[in-house]
Amino acid sequence: KESKSPRDFRRKHVTPLENIDNNQCNSEMQNKGIALTQHGCKPINTFIHAPESQVDQACVAGKPIAIDNLEYKRSSQKFRITNCRLSQSHTEDCKYVAENSDWRYIVVSCDQNNRPVHLAKTLRNEFIGKQGDISPSGDTDQDTHNAASALNARWFLRKGAFCVPCFAAAVLLFSAVFSWWL
């Protein structure tokens, strides 16, 4: 569910805590009123370990990025994040397990004052669609990548124009790999 305001976003996703263990996951989820939704226990919640002012910079200095024709901003820096995931053995009483913290870029939608209002996903790498990307719904992007698909189409396009040096570099790389294989 999308946060309605920067205040809701901060309550749900920003924490001053340096670490979150299982007990802290449960207390943060309960004390902040995040655990119980209209549809039962929330399956997962992502906490960003950073001051609010640093998280706000994702909207101010972040890179514009489109997901399903909606505009978001990808933070220019990685943040340490922790996911609190609903325990399989405690789905009725909303008990959570802390996953290992990880450094990730955050992808957010912003209000007119350049403050985050919705956490769309977290990215291990700068580009969307890499294995290990996580959306707050808990879905992981399991796209498989082979050598041909590893060349990102964004390398060939710059602001809608064909990038000749990028294409040349890709051709050289492909021919080097192909000649080595033969």
Automatic annotation (TrEMBL):
<dbReference type="GO" id="GO:0004540">
    <property type="term" value="F:RNA nuclease activity"/>
</dbReference>
<dbReference type="GO" id="GO:0005576">
    <property type="term" value="C:extracellular region"/>
</dbReference>
<keyword id="KW-1015">Disulfide bond</keyword>
<protein>
    <recommendedName>
        <fullName>Ribonuclease A-domain domain-containing protein</fullName>
    </recommendedName>
</protein>
<feature type="domain" description="Ribonuclease A-domain">
    <location>
        <begin position="1"/>
        <end position="123"/>
    </location>
</feature>
<feature type="transmembrane region" description="Helical">
    <location>
        <begin position="161"/>
        <end position="181"/>
    </location>
</feature>
<dbReference type="InterPro" id="IPR023412">
    <property type="entry name" value="RNaseA_domain"/>
</dbReference>
<keyword id="KW-0378">Hydrolase</keyword>
<dbReference type="GO" id="GO:0003676">
    <property type="term" value="F:nucleic acid binding"/>
</dbReference>
<keyword id="KW-1133">Transmembrane helix</keyword>
<dbReference type="GO" id="GO:0004519">
    <property type="term" value="F:endonuclease activity"/>
</dbReference>
<keyword id="KW-0540">Nuclease</keyword>
<dbReference type="GO" id="GO:0050830">
    <property type="term" value="P:defense response to Gram-positive bacterium"/>
</dbReference>
<dbReference type="InterPro" id="IPR023411">
    <property type="entry name" value="RNaseA_AS"/>
</dbReference>
<keyword id="KW-0472">Membrane</keyword>
<keyword id="KW-0964">Secreted</keyword>
<keyword id="KW-0255">Endonuclease</keyword>
<dbReference type="InterPro" id="IPR036816">
    <property type="entry name" value="RNaseA-like_dom_sf"/>
</dbReference>
<comment type="similarity">
    <text>Belongs to the pancreatic ribonuclease family.</text>
</comment>
<dbReference type="InterPro" id="IPR001427">
    <property type="entry name" value="RNaseA"/>
</dbReference>
<dbReference type="Pfam" id="PF00074">
    <property type="entry name" value="RnaseA"/>
</dbReference>
<keyword id="KW-0812">Transmembrane</keyword>
<dbReference type="GO" id="GO:0016787">
    <property type="term" value="F:hydrolase activity"/>
</dbReference>
